[in-house]
Amino acid sequence: MPGLTSIVSVPQAAGIPVTHRGVSGGLHVANGQGPITTSTRAALGDDAITTVFLMGVAALPRIVEAARAAGAPLERPVAIVERGHTPQQRTTRSTLATVLADAAAAGVANPAVIVIGEVARAGLLLAPAEERERAIR
């Protein structure tokens, strides 16, 4: 789904809510082909903001550099969702520390949506094993 809807729908198709109560208080959207603006740098450095990049695969090194310069922790989660809403959809989960190597190893390619923030953490929406077992009983 191209355009604005892909900002929310592609991450959601991968089980990533771009906002989530107690995890993300806001959403910042950026075009990966454009310059990293002051507001994007501020969002990348803010623990409470989810930043979503469209068309950002080629700019990933620049995005990671901007996030680090903004003070984002190296363990901040990153998810790259390729070919959203197609049978070939694939998600690469990583952190700012390793996303460049992980994306290269996976052969990440466009079209893709990049999500940076705590909502991209693997297992965020999964209940702990004890809670799942209680729910089954």
From TrEMBL:
Residues 1-99 form the Tetrapyrrole methylase domain. This is Siroheme synthase. SUPFAM superfamilies: Tetrapyrrole methylase (SSF53790). Signal peptide: none annotated. It comes from the Bacteria. InterPro entries: 4pyrrol_Mease (IPR000878), 4pyrrol_Methylase_sf (IPR035996), 4pyrrole_Mease_sub2 (IPR014776), Siro_Cobalamin_biosynth (IPR050161). It comes from Microbacterium paludicola. Keywords: Porphyrin biosynthesis. The lineage of its organism: Bacteria, Bacillati, Actinomycetota, Actinomycetes, Micrococcales.
